[in-house]
Amino acid sequence: MTRKRRRLMILVLALLGLGTATALTLSAFRDNIVFFYSPSDLAAKPPGGRTVRIGGLVEAGSLKREGGMTVTFQVTDTAKSLPVTYTGILPDLFREGQGVVAEGKLGPDGVFTATELLAKHDEKYMPPDVADALKRAGHPGKPGDTSSGGAPVAAGEEHQTSTLRTHP
Amino acid sequence: MHRFANPARFLKIANAVLPWVAGLSVVCFAAGLYLGLIASPPDYQQGDTVRIMYIHVPAAWMSMFTYSTMAVAAAAALVWKHPLAEVYAKAAAPLGAGFTALCLLTGSLWGAPMWGTWWVWDARLTSVLVLFFLYLGYMALVDAFDDPARGNKAGNILLLVGAVNVPIIKFSVEWWNTLHQPASVFRLGGPTIAASMLWPLLLLAVAFQSYFFAVVILRIRAGLAARRVQTLRLGQAG
């Protein structure tokens, strides 16, 4: 074995070891790395009195203004949903059907009181006229779907899973 | 690949390529910036704020491209002792750091109105910040030794260790819940970005890429010249 070969072997082995160690560490700390929990996560692992972040879609039709700067709405991951109340300024992208991340505490009454609200943007970019055309056609799919017109149901599902993406 | 590791042969090719990549960069910057900042439509959700994306995304791509190529160069330098590989890594580092800083800065400017925050410690933002520190750490480390050969070796090892961060950046938005949105262009199932917005983005990506090649060629030339000066000095002293 030449010296170059030996150096290459050492390098490959070291990188493999490092990669494995990183993968193990990251999967062990998965619960700490996620930025927010879904309503289902929260139901499975109640946080008690801790401050946590929850995320999901603002359920369509659930947004209510309570007077002043207080709003209530439901955050859903399509399996479970959670009532949230928040007082303060809403971010630009906050709207029904869009992703949202809220930081706060879960009360004993099951209502999540948010102290900070962040809007989550999905990965779709399109001009307003394309969005209107899609809406008229009845499916919030990706921009490419306008011409093909294919699989509106699949496109709708993709929209929800990609916005939410809870860890497997 | 080994053929081009010869500095003289590399310089011959690089000098021929340089005016072309420089010209390409100028043309693509002009066309891409015009299309992106003026002629392209606003987004249905974000309005005109979407235009930040035309700078942010190419900068982010380049930050990862630059680091990946530096890591490959580090491996080549450690295993095959190619003289050009170390010169390349040192030449590319400040460019990569600049791209990463631009990416973080524009992302922050976009996040403030859209998310409602300048910064969060989610997996994507944090791993990109780590990438920025890796660049700074590499640049500090290679020059921290009296013996340049030892500095280069330490820097190469740092580059290879830091390479685990690159897939973490790319897949952070899929492995964990993050505030940052998932990929829109390089994803299974095709881009989720309208063609009228994809074109300026791709033009600017080419502009950033060719800018990188042009500047890195200039910096490699300077790096090789500095090495020659050093060898000559050592020859005179000895």
UniProtKB/TrEMBL annotation, chain A:
Positions bound to heme: 121, 125
Keywords assigned by UniProt, alphabetized: Cell membrane, Cytochrome c-type biogenesis, Heme, Iron, Membrane, Metal-binding, Signal-anchor, Transmembrane, Transmembrane helix
GO CC term, one of those recorded: plasma membrane
All ranges on the Extracellular side of the membrane: 29-168
Chain spans, region Disordered: 131-168
Classification via Pfam families: CcmE
Cytoplasmic face of the membrane: 1-7
TM stretches of this protein: none
GO biological process, one term: protein-heme linkage
Domain of life from the UniProt record: Bacteria
Primary site of residence: membrane
Membrane topology type: Single-pass type II membrane protein
Compartments it resides in: Cell inner membrane; Cell membrane
Molecular-function GO terms, alphabetical: heme binding; metal ion binding
UniProt function note: Heme chaperone required for the biogenesis of c-type cytochromes. Transiently binds heme delivered by CcmC and transfers the heme to apo-cytochromes in a process facilitated by CcmF and CcmH.
Family: Belongs to the CcmE/CycJ family.
Protein's name according to its UniProt entry: Cytochrome c-type biogenesis protein CcmE
Lineage: Bacteria, Pseudomonadati, Pseudomonadota, Alphaproteobacteria, Rhodospirillales
From TrEMBL, chain B:
Keywords from the named record: Cell inner membrane, Cell membrane, Cytochrome c-type biogenesis, Membrane, Transmembrane, Transmembrane helix, Transport
GO terms under biological process: cytochrome complex assembly
Domain Cytochrome c assembly protein: 4-180
GO CC terms of this entry: plasma membrane
Keyword Cell inner membrane: yes
Subcellular location, principal: membrane
Subcellular locations according to the entry: Cell inner membrane; Membrane
Pfam family, one: Cytochrom_C_asm
Coiled coil regions in record: none
Sequence intervals crossing the membrane: 20-39, 59-80, 92-113, 125-145, 157-177, 197-218
Bilayer topology term: Multi-pass membrane protein
Molecular function terms, GO-annotated: heme binding; heme transmembrane transporter activity
Function: Required for the export of heme to the periplasm for the biogenesis of c-type cytochromes.
Family label: Belongs to the CcmC/CycZ/HelC family.
Name this polypeptide is given: Heme exporter protein C
Organism: Nitrospirillum amazonense
